[in-house]
Amino acid sequence: MVNDAAALALAAVAAWLARRPASARHSYGFGRAEFLAALANSLGLLVLVIWIAASAVQRLRDPQPVVGEAVSLAAAAGLGINILVAWLLGRGEKNLNVHAALLHVLGDLLGSVAALLSGIVIAFTGWTPIDPLLSFGIGALIVVSSLRLLREALHGLMEGTPFDLAPEEVGRALATVPGVASVHDLHIWSVAPERTLLTAHLVVRELRQWETVLDACHALLIERFDIHHATLQPEPETRTVRWLEAPHRQRRDGPR
Hints:
Layout: H1 2-18, H2 32-61, H3 68-90, H4 96-125, H5 130-157, H6 167-175, E1 180-192, E2 195-204, H7 210-225, E3 229-236, H8 237-252
Parallel strand pairs: 2-3
Antiparallel strand pairs: 1-2
């Protein structure tokens, strides 16, 4: 519960920082704080699982007396609290930071379920190994989710393209806009879990139509890919053709 409280506090601070306005020193704002919080919370979960696994091994080697009724009552109370917190988080924003906090709560919720079951089994049968065995099972579930969360947080901090976007698909979509001949130097990354940025060079057939082409590209990116911040640089098609032909002319007109 202490671990969960720390995770929720960290997530709340990160969310507060992410809402701070941009400044001259931080022109993109502080959205990366949510990636950092998710990274810290995922590492915290892995440390917690290691501690639980070590405790479970120790209890298997040296079983301790357990009062099943007391364990069941404490677990039931914890289960109720965790269900309420998980419900509140589930109704909030859907981003990586909230997901990390929710994962902490769900891990504790599963722990409460495991404690409740083990308490009932021990109360009726006296079989104490059920407690560490269930701990191993819950730990395995948390590890899988924690590693996935850690991967997403590191991916965001390394300015990777969001997993739900395919750069090739975005580039092909931009190339279908009337007036666009081709797309190159396409980059997509996130400065916050819910803020995706894009830059690209567009080879256009007529520079005089650039304003119309630009509006159409922005509308496509917003409606189809939910990208609201895009910087698009136009390049005339004639310049591209001359650049491609230059090496051939050099070879043809070289020394004889």
